[in-house]
Amino acid sequence: MALKIEKEFFGVVMSPRREDVYDNGGGVLYPRVIELHHAGEKNGMLLATFDYYTIKEPPVAPIYCSTDHGKTWEPYSQVEDTKNGYGIRFQPVLFELPVQCGDLPAGTIVFAGNSIPLDFKSTELLFYISRDQGKTWEYRSSVAAGGPPIEQNFDELGPVWEPFIYLNAANEITVVFTDERPHTDRSLNQTLAVTSSKDGGKTWENEHLVVAIPDGMSRPGMAIVTKLPNGKYFMCYEIVCFPEEGDPYFDVHCRMSDDGMDFGDPAFKGTRIETADGFYLMSMPYCLWVPQGGENGTIIVSAKRDGDALRLRDPGDFLVNYHLGEGPWERVPMLVNYDSSIGQAGWSMGMCTIENGTKLLQLAPTQMDTRMLQISYGIGVLKSE
């Protein structure tokens, strides 16, 4: 058997106005989306968030909602930086708790985002909770704090980036994030770290490194984790590298964990995600397991680029795996299209299943023109054939 995704609907979540955003970017990036399953009469409602580079300070993380299975979207709420007052500037992520965690009941919505001042002097991953399905938000804790959001700034404390939230095997809230603070050891350029909370996000355990390649050049980042039906945790991430000799690369890799915390030797690069004939993905992956496609279901991975090509992805390809992450991958058309040579189009796309797991929703930054981006979506029916 194999997975088929039958495209059903395409639309736009949000289009920024040029006058509302900074001139040096596309306005929006980094969409994330969830469907609510523990919300009583609000089950099936969708919540989405994304980077919004508004000139209004301090910035907030917008929350949009859909009550018609993703066909239409409207502003719903916003997450404000009530700890530092700097603004939630980058990399927001949402998660609905499926079980009670500490004093937080199932159905609580949790959020993490990067608090960064306008002078770009620091980074801090802040954790928020919502007790009313994302309508209002409370600051809960700080997951990790770092230096200025500048890559390879070896003369200062490195930044923390790109959080992703899930539950580990002990049902503890877990955050994997990109951690450049270890670059004080010049053998480590950028790393991935993981931490968990035993008390519902009030406090966090000491983080440990998940991917830390001691070659001084490799930059693993943008990790996403999905749980498989055999209980294992599948993590995908990019490795960016600009070697002194040879071409730069941005290949997407993966690794496994039994408990969602220990992903093996951090020095191991992981396994590159590729087909039997060598087709692979590059940059900013997202992964999701779905039950369709065979007895093991299917792992779906998206990324900004096909190989190292910068070109129109119309619609481009997911890579999918029918064997719980083992062996080669196969190509399945994506649900959104964009020109990957235009700025940051396709930058870190988000996905979730909707309508009782029968359909796939994919969000992506797509081009409005040669500079401006909007958050677009595609909906497809998931079928086994």
TrEMBL record:
A Pfam family: BNR
Protein's name in the database: Exo-alpha-sialidase
InterPro entries in alphabetical order: BNR_rpt, Sialidase_sf
Taxonomic placement: Bacteria, Bacillati, Bacillota, Clostridia, Eubacteriales
